[in-house]
Amino acid sequence: MTGHRVDDHAYAHRGQPHHLLVADDALTVGDVLPEFGDDDQPHAATRDPRALPVTESLETRVDDLGLPALLFGAAGQPSVRIALVDPVGTVRPHATLCWPENQEEPPDRRLVDDPATPLGASGGWRITGFLPDLAPLLGPQAERIVDLVRQRQAGKGHHPFYRRVLDVEWEELGAGYATALLDTAVRALHARGLPGGWWASNLPATEWNLEVVALAARDLIGSVMSVPRWNQDAYDDMTRAWWMPFGPLHPDDAPPRTRAAALAALRAVGCGKAG
C-alpha cells in the first residue's frame, strides 16, 4: 500500500489520535510497540481507524482473519482491539507498507498527513487507551454489518427462498457479474485508502462478500470519481437477493432495481450471460 493523495478527507482527521490493531490481550496502557514486532509483522498506525491495515497487521497474530472471527472470537468477544497510541520519536510512512522493495525513492513525506496512510514511529507507539469495540474499523454501517453477520451465523443465510433467489440471480446475470460487482466495491474502498482486499477475501461465502462489502462501501456510492461504476445500480444488484425475502439491509435503502432491469442493462452493453 502506498497511501492516497491528501484531499478534504485528510483534514477531517487532522488532530485525531493514532489507532493501531493489536491481538495481544496482555497489552495495557503505557506499553510501547516497536515498528516491527518479534514476529516481523508491522505495528502500523493510522489516524482513520477505518483504514487500519488489517491483513498486514494481523496475519501472523491471529488464527482467523475472517470478519466473524474478529468480531466474535471464540467467546463471543472481539479477538482483536483498536489501541489508541502516541508516537515515540518521529512519525513517518511505515517502512514496509509504504515503501515497496522495488521503490528506490522513500515515500512522499506528505503522506503522513493522509489519515489512511499506515505510519511508523522511530521509537515505536505508546498505548494510551483502547476503543470499546471494532465499530470504527467497520465504518459508518458498523452496526448493520455486525447485525448481518449475526443473522448469518444464526442460519438466516440458509433460508430456502433466499437460496433460491441467489441461484436465479446468478444463473440469469452470470457469476462473472457478481465478481465484477465485488471488484467494483473493493476498488471504491481502495480508492479511499481502505482495506478493500481484506473485506473481499475474509468472509465465508460469495454472498457474504457481496452483502457485507456492499454495506462497507455504501457511504461511497457515487462519490469516488475514479470508480464511477460504484453507483446505486451496483449496490442494488449486490443486495437485491437479501432484500427479496428479508427486506433492506439499510433502513434508508429504496427498493432495488429489478433483476429484469439489471439484465437489460447488461444486454445493452453486451455483457453478462445474455451478451
List keywords for this structure.
disordered N terminus; 38% helix; 275 residues; 11 helices; four-stranded antiparallel β-sheet
Helical residues, percent: 25-40%
Q: Pairing-aware structural class of the strands and helices? A: alpha+beta
Largest sheet: 4 strands, antiparallel
Task: Indicate the low-confidence ranges by residue numbers.
Answer: 1-13
The strands making up the biggest β-sheet line up spatially as 1-3-6-2
Oligomer: single chain
| General shape | elongated
Count, helices: 11
Q: How many DSSP-defined strands?
A: 6
Beta-strand content estimate: 5-15%
Mean pLDDT: 85
| End-to-end CA span | 36 Å
Order of helix and strand elements from N to C terminus: HEEHHEEEEHHHHHHHH
Question: Can you walk through the features of this model?
Answer:
- By secondary structure, this protein is of the alpha+beta class.
- Helices cover 38% and strands 9% of the residues.
- The protein has helices at 8-11, 54-58, 67-72, 135-138, 142-153, 160-173, 175-191, 196-201, 206-216, 232-246, 259-268, and strands spanning 18-22, 32-33, 81-87, 91-93, 119-121, 125-130.
- The protein has a four-stranded antiparallel beta sheet with strand order 1-3-6-2. It has a two-stranded antiparallel ribbon with strand order 4-5.
- Helix 5 runs antiparallel to helix 9 (206-216), helix 6 (160-173) packs antiparallel against helix 10 (232-246) and helix 7 (175-191) crosses helix 10 (232-246).
- The longest helix has 17 residues, at 175-191.
- The radius of gyration is 20 Å and the shape is elongated.
- The model is unreliable at 1-13 (pLDDT under 50).
